[in-house]
Specification:
The protein is built from 12 helices and no strands. The longest helix is centred in the middle third of the chain and has 23 residues, at 102-124. By secondary structure, it is mainly alpha-helical.
């Protein structure tokens, strides 16, 4: 069986997502109003929410928390940011539920909140551990190479990889959730996969034509 990282680089999104799902920094906030318009809003029907909040929370909370934990490399922060974002989603559910990708909205609100907290914390502390261990997440780990390899990526590249392969979002959905252009998603993804490939001993499963096709590199 191919290793999880092999599957990611090979472009097998769904299979890789199942492996990444087994993995998983704290905060404050100064950005709530701008987040509402961060993800493109497309009504699902005539002003009616397409899913009740409790069901949405049950279906998505753990997955979003694990995705943020991978992107931030801190399980506690990922969990706290997720909970904060879901509180906001609940308060605005009549509107958020009509978005094309409410899951992406929650993810971006949580990520913005986490980054805001990290900026403030950085001013108060000279150093902060890069990875905070989380027993519940550690118990689920399948491939320790995954955490190490993702940790070697830049934050921007790591976030794109997690969004595409863990959240299983399309390029456009990833762009909406992260607030960047689709071309930037493709560029960062291509570079991230190249970097991950260089860290693997066995690259026989790679399909370079898939990761390079129609990719326009952007800064």
């Amino acid at each position: 069986m191919s290793r999880p990282l092999d599957l990611i680089i090979a472009g097998d999104q769904r299979t890789a997502g199942m492996f990444i799902e087994t993995e998983g920094n704290r905060m404050g906030d100064d950005s709530s109003h701008d987040d509402v318009a961060a993800v493109r809003r497309i009504p699902e029907g005539p002003g009616e929410p397409h899913l009740d909040f409790d069901s949405f929370y049950a279906l998505n909370r753990d997955q979003i928390a694990r995705a943020l934990s991978l992107s931030l490399r801190n399980a506690d922060l990922g969990a706290e940011a997720t909970d904060e974002a879901f509180v906001r989603a609940c308060q605005r559910w009549a509107e958020v539920s009509t978005y094309a990708n409410p899951q992406g909205w929650v993810y971006r609100v949580a990520m913005n909140w986490a980054r805001s907290w990290l900026r403030r914390t950085r001013r108060e502390r000279d150093k902060r551990p890069l990875l905070v261990k989380h027993e519940a997440i550690e118990d689920q780990l399948v491939d320790v190479d995954l955490e190490r390899a993702l940790g070697g990526l830049s934050p921007g590249h790591r976030t794109v990889v997690v969004a595409r392969f863990f959240m299983d979002w399309s390029v456009d959905e990833t762009a909406d959730a992260l607030g960047i252009r689709p071309g930037t998603v493709k560029s960062r993804l291509s570079r991230a996969l190249d970097q991950l490939a260089n860290e693997l001993a066995d690259t026989s499963v790679l399909r370079p034509e898939e990761s390079q096709e129609n990719v326009h590199h952007e800064p």
